[in-house]
Design a protein that fits this description.
Elements lengths: L4 E2 L2 H5 L8 E4 L9 H10 L4 E4 L11 H5 L3 E6 L6 H8 L4 E4 L2 H12 L4 E4 L13 E4 L2 E7 L3 E12 L4 E2 L8 H6 L1 E12 L18 E4 L19
Parallel strand pairs: 1-12, 2-3, 2-9, 3-4, 4-5, 9-11, 11-12
Antiparallel strand pairs: 6-8, 7-8, 9-10
Length: 236
């Protein structure tokens, strides 16, 4: 079996990227994003990307870097409110956007990873979300059909992994990362802690290594906070 651990993000991405490809990028907001892999993709100059992600990072960080480089042609997302450049590019017609309810986006990715081509949901029926989509009635209720999503490449962030690619996520980073790991034709993962096989409790593994093609051990993670909210300290 080919070794899955690569020395750095650039090496792991070698031979994988091409113009016009579809990339799934894990994380929720700025939590649990594959920041090293995103930065390495930015340096390659690959263009006309369709990116499937909960959001598009912020100005100057995360997927926002790819936006600044004009490498993204289309976003498939559920939230884009923290990125001013995104707004400008969308309103000017330079960026395509496919909006999804957040739960629908998650299920489309899960379905793609499970080999399910489409499913029906009540979410979005009777709204712009349902325009041009097939609808049906089940048990007297209206549903809209959504298709599963599969990407040419999934880039994922995990907390721990063994060298066979078995993954453990931590807290909010379990949003989108686990299902994206299953829905990529190729899956690349960056991890904070890399251990030898047998070191992980099998009951604690979230993504089996069968889904993972390549791994890198990130030396440093910036882990920015998307929006800092504080309150005045109470006085006694």
């Amino acid at each position: 079996m080919a070794r899955k651990v690569y020395s750095d993000a650039a090496t792991a991405l070698a031979g994988v990227l091409f113009d016009g490809m579809t990339i799934m990028s894990g994380g929720f907001g700025l939590c649990g994003i594959p920041e090293h892999l995103i930065a390495a993709i930015a340096k390659t100059g690959v263009r006309d990307l369709t990116v499937i992600s909960n959001n598009c990072g912020v100005d100057g960080f995360g997927l926002g870097i790819l936006l600044e480089n004009r490498q993204i042609k289309k976003m498939v997302s559920s939230y884009v409110g923290e990125n001013k450049l995104f707004e400008q590019l969308y309103l000017s017609g330079e960026l395509e956007l496919e909006f999804n309810p957040q739960g629908t986006l998650a299920e489309r990715i899960r379905a793609g990873g499970a080999g399910i081509p489409a499913f029906f949901t009540k979410t979005g029926y009777g709204t712009l979300i349902a325009d041009g989509k097939e609808t049906r009635v089940f048990n007297g209720e209206n549903y809209v059909m959504e298709t599963g999503l599969v990407a040419d490449l999934s880039i994922v962030k995990a907390w721990k992994a063994d060298t066979e690619g078995n993954l453990v996520y931590r807290k909010t980073a379990r949003n989108f990362n686990p299902m994206m790991a299953t829905a990529g034709k190729v899956t690349l993962v960056e991890v904070e802690d890399l251990v030898e096989p047998g070191a992980l409790d099998p009951d604690h593994i979230h993504t089996p290594g069968i889904y993972v093609d390549r791994l890198i051990h990130g030396a440093h993670f910036e882990k920015r906070i998307e929006r800092v909210t504080t309150r005045e300290k109470e006085t006694v």
